[in-house]
Amino acid sequence: MKINNLKLFFIFAFLVGMIYISIIKTEKYTSNSTIIIKDLSQKQSSSMLGSMLLGQTSSSMQDSKLLEIYIKSMEMYMMLNKEHNLSSYYSSNKIDFLQRLSPNALFGFWLANNENILKKYTNDLSILYNEPSSTLTIGFKHTNPRTAQQIVKDIISNASKSLNHFEKENAQVALHALLQQEQENKNLFTDSIKKLIAYQNKHHTIDPNMDVQSKSTILANLESGLMQKEVEYKSKLGYLNKETAEMHLLRDTLLQMKHSIARIKKRIAGNGKDELNKNVSEFELLKSEVDFNKERYKQTLVKLEETKVQVKQNAKNLIVVTPPTLAQTHSEPNKIKDIITLLIVLSFLYGILTLILSILNEHKD
To answer: Which of 70, 220, 301, 329 has the most CB atoms lying inside 10 A of its own CB?
Structure first.
């Protein structure tokens, strides 16, 4: 008798479930659109290849996942709610009584609060990322197919704005840091120039290297001239008296040239703090410091200009591969599939319960 009652109960439950699925359950239409995110600030082919080789997440995947999180957020829902009044929709008679939210519901899962409304929104939302093609398919279910289509359009429009907003915020932070760095590098560059100018003024030279080169040239010419005069003196000594005026003049010339050579050599070699070689090394250090600070300042200016461009431009571009579709037939519920699933589940439960009851009856007997 109990088993017969149980059988009738499960038949009744199946009929009620079938009626709910066939007649009462809300029919929803799905609109789908496929998009791809293009980063205009870099070459995606090389970045994707590098990511695959290094086992890193590609920029396209990161952007897509970031976009997915934003689309499912309360901020996106609030923007869509302004246009399509989704809060009222989830509490309206357009939704069947089992799925409908109510501000006066006794049970928490039917209460029309922000948490439950956001859950309803995300349940109607579908986002699928295709890694090989780097595309993102966005879908939304609604009782009105045209509303579903318009909501998908609005999601794409708002997502595009937000994605570039994130990039611009990022660039603004980088720009602020670069402006500080640019000022620091500029100060370093100007300070190094001032040190170099002070050194040049102190030592009365533009470039000690040039002084060394010029003195070396003069020294070489003097040494060459000295050799020629010595040869001339020795050759004339063979037929002229060394006490003649001409020979006295040659000896004086040779002596002056030797003094000049010795004086120039001493200047080149230097002595104490005034050593020319030391001056050259000090000058080279100051000059290399100027060159280094100049290059660093130059690179900072290049980065600064690039970042300014990033702040102004929309680096990320959402390209719509397939526009939002307008559904002709409902996608939910799948009545045949749901009824068969219900039948299988109820049959399974009925089998378990009848087995338990049979075992209990045997023990009683």
So the answer is: 70
